[in-house]
Design goal:
The protein is mainly alpha-helical. The protein is built from three helices and no strands.
Amino acid sequence: MANLLVRNVHEDIREALKARARAHGVSAEAEHRRILEEALLRPKRRSFLQVLADMPDVGRDEDFARRQDETAPPVFD
């Protein structure tokens, strides 16, 4: 396991890290590792286009056609 030393961190950031660590009940060092892991190893977000491309091609266009209910009262007068 490697060591990582971070220098010249602004005091506000150091205090925020300590506060976040206290809130999670861990040391500042453990919280730092957790933040780095979340930021660098979490799954990459997919673009909207990728999500659409991954949707299965099911149904027909008619299945999704909008139907007008003539018996419903008007919403806007």
